[in-house]
Structure prediction request, 905 residues.
Amino acid sequence: MPEETLLEFAGVHTHYGDLHVLKGVDYSVAPDDIVVLLGGNASGKSTTMKTIMGTVTPSQGEVRFRGAPINRLSTSERVRRGIAPVLEARRLFPRMTVYENLEMGAYTRKRGPKFDEDLERVYELFPRVKERRHQLAGTLSGGEQQMVAIGRALMARPALICMDEPSMGLSPRFVEIVFGIIQTINRQGVAIFMVEQNAHMALQIASRGYVLQTGRVVLSGPAADLAANPAIREAYLGELQVEEN
Amino acid sequence: MKRLALLSPRQRQALFAALLMVLLLLPFLGIGQANIDVAANSCAYAALALGLNIVVGFTGLLDLGYAAFFAIGAYAYGILNSFQLHPHWSAAWAPLAAIGFVAKLGAGAAATVHFTFPFWLMLPASAVIAACFGMAFGAPTLRLKGDYLAIVTLGFGEIVPIVARNWSSLTNGAEGLNGVGPPVLFGYRFGINATPYYYVGLGLVLLLLFISLRLKPSRIGRAWMAVREDEIAASAMGVHTTRLKLLAFAMGAGFAGMTGTFYIAKLQTATPDMFDLPVSIMVLVMIVLGGLASVWGAILGAVLLELLQAWFLPALSGWVQGLGNAIHSPFLQNLELTSASELIFGIILVTMMLYRRDGLVPVGRNEVRLSYEQQDAAVSRGAAPAVARLRAGLAEATADARPAALEIRDLTVKFGGLTALKSVSLDVPPGSIVAVIGPNGSGKSTLFNSITGLVKPSAGVVRFAGRDLLGLRPDQVLRAGVARTFQNIRLFPNLTVMENVLIGQHTHLSSGAAGAVLGLPRVRAEEREAREFVLELLAMFGNRLVPRIDQGVAQLSYANRRRVEIARALASRPRLLMLDEPTAGMNPAESLELAEQIAAFRDFGLTVLLVEHKLDVVTRLADNVIVLDHGEKLAEGRADEVRRNEAVIEAYIGRGVVDA
Prediction:
């Protein structure tokens, strides 16, 4: 079977009013990929995420999911088709319990045995989440909230999870846990597309990467190649690793 | 409207002068008494809208009972210049009679007092009276937020007309006050001619417009908007939020009180139903229509709604009835659209919210278009030159520039049954950087919040520069020289970079509302210096923020928002800077750049307390590291020692690399 493409951007441009953000980008994500998007601030990373989820509509170009154009689809329709977001800063429903947050993740699907199955799967991945299922989400620590956010995305039984900075604000140990879980989820057959500032860790688990600069893809390729690229080392990894003095 | 903003200041002045000429000549254009009366009423509504705009638009306090203050101003004048009160005459009234505030009616034992307090005195006096009521209503209620405050204001908006309806001896109940005296100017007694009232109304609007325009970009106006945008951040930047909210409430009430006096003098009667809930709602609709917080918008909204009611609906009714006559439709012939005015307001409001949420004159934010070079800020190393300039600025500004120490002893914080911090002690020696690390939920942010007065510890001591900080409000902590940033960034999202950083200087500026309105030279000089200081602060970050200085901060990238927050904290000229995860959302190269800048702060005498997850940054910066876990101190020491500590690795750092 030929390598099929799950998510594809073909020459996508986006505008906010007069502001031209994405300037003709192409991405492709295969069903077993972990793709990381690197880039400085204001390079268009968040806009890419919004374009995938449908809160920003391309002014030109096409976004395809499983081969079908999805430019005009609403966010909820995209979730129904198998794209689930893990938003920047988590965005849980703070005054709902953890369990209710997970329930909301499965909002687009019918309730049934599959729901319980998925819930079990989430609890298995995150025993901590199971312990806290009756607690209000807003009272959890940052790391626990991130687990609930990922769990909530899984409840939609997605083919692709989009993550905006999953490691932000997490302790080093939690960062490791979260990246480990991302790998596990990926092995269970979910593609991951993530924006991450912790380029070092992200490139370790990713299969491929793109580097975005002021709205254009300036570099792309297998993650290992990117990690070895001197320009990347300089801009995103470099200086902290080079021993000075 | 967008084009209006593009005009140069000179063109705008010319436009305003031309408009003013037309307004001044309006009564001579042969438009008839009825229309001049409409224009005078428009003035009254515009004045009300300007006042409510201060409360709702600037300060963000949803007030649904604003007409209460309109009523208070109205009755204050109505009672003191009518036949409503008529106590028996006694010699004690003679002094007041001598200056014309009362008159003696009748003679002998049957003589009574007739109150004739002059309009021109009552105009400012009503403002003061209404402002006092504003404070009295506000003081117990302003602690409430959002919806709760709205419900309470709804309550006193109801109470005032009910009191007016039932306190017949004072207000003549539902029948209302009659025979309220008209203004008298140099012997000329205003009668029923609308023209002189129109001029008084126009003058009133111009005065209130002037006050609003002067206050908005002042220290007070900025503090109001800071309260609206984020009350916690405002108090952490030294804004005494309760006082400023009261000031806004009093000011808004004062505008309404003045307008009430004007309106009643014009009508020469006052009944309670003139101040019922629909009036409050209508004024609110005016400012929403015009654009919340937009001064010109408030006036435009008021004028449009009044004209809609007075001109457009009757005219439309006429056309529809004419059409009905032409096509012999009894339904159209009898359609009276003026009685459906509220329905039509409703339709307008819904349409506005759907298509132009920011109102007719939105409070514009410049969308600055940046060149490629400006957008693509290079990672800069060595913040030294900019920081050196900053040091000079800070040393000048801080009375006591010597580094100071933070001392925490046995700090315990409990939330209900949960102990968030358990007897934590730590020292931040003068001029050093101490980092607090620990798992998520270990109490780091709680530590920050208890130092800065956002959380009340149940036991312990927090001392900075020899002064006890516990029990102080956040704004008092800032005045004591402690400034902070927040883990989740709490900027004022709808304000510009410049405005955000200016608010950081709130406690170092002294101009009050009066100085700003009068435009005193001292106030202008202070404002100019404050703006220059902002530029100096932002220069520290190279070209990352300076080109974006007039942009709303909501449009900035996450990392740039963090930088603005640090600049805002520095603007308060602190001696202790507390940074909560300053490099979150920055890539390693950017984190390093910021780390260098933070090191430079220490080098010129700032004491720094830091919460940070990036161990490279911590290792590079911290003179001492404190590890918290489950609210207790797990370890303390130099960064390299702590990183080797078994307990710390277990709880926080983690062992392996991700299996790849």
